[in-house]
Amino acid sequence: MCREMQREPAWVAAIRLALLRGRVDVESVVEEANLIPGRERTVRDVLSTMAERDLLVARDGGDHEYVPGPGLLDGDRLGRDFSRASDGGAHRWGSTGRGRGRAE
């Protein structure tokens, strides 16, 4: 399959890099997500939105560089139903045992 068809959402790449490398920036997300050139502005917007939601924290002195925020570090990743994670995206994940079910 062509490399161009192997893209993923920028926010997925950002989370992966933040958790695995401990930091994330525009260039690393573009590379990790296999985005086409010219998507840097979109990635900047994604990263700043993630920072607004406490998923990432802007790193001092960095040019659009972020580290994992409390939303990623303290989030409840346990007890999630990931069996259909690729079927419609993360917004469909439900937490078991809390009265919230998976959207069907």
Averaged pLDDT, please?
75
Structural class by helix and strand composition: alpha+beta
CA gyration radius, whole angstroms: 15 Å
The arrangement of helices and strands along the chain is HEHHEEH
Shape by Cα distribution = globular
Alpha plus pi helix count? 4
Notable features of this structure?
single chain, alpha+beta, 4 helices, 3 strands, disordered C terminus, 104 residues, 3-stranded antiparallel beta sheet
Task: Describe this structure in a few short sentences.
This protein has helices at residues 10-21, 26-32, 40-52, 70-73; strands at 24-25, 56-58, 65-68. With 104 residues, it is α+β, with helices and mostly antiparallel strands.
Secondary structure layout:
Elements: H1 10-21, E1 24-25, H2 26-32, H3 40-52, E2 56-58, E3 65-68, H4 70-73
Antiparallel strand pairs: 1-3, 2-3
Helix pairs in contact: 1-2, 2-3
Could you please describe the fold and organization of this structure?
Residues 67-104 are annotated as: Disordered. Residues 74-84 have a biased composition (Basic and acidic residues). The structure is a single chain. The chain is of the alpha+beta class and 104 residues long. Helix content is 35%, strand content 9%. The chain has 4 helices and 3 strands, in the order H-E-H-H-E-E-H. Strands 1-3-2 form a 3-stranded antiparallel β-sheet. It is globular and about 35 Å long. The model is unreliable at 88-104 (pLDDT under 50).
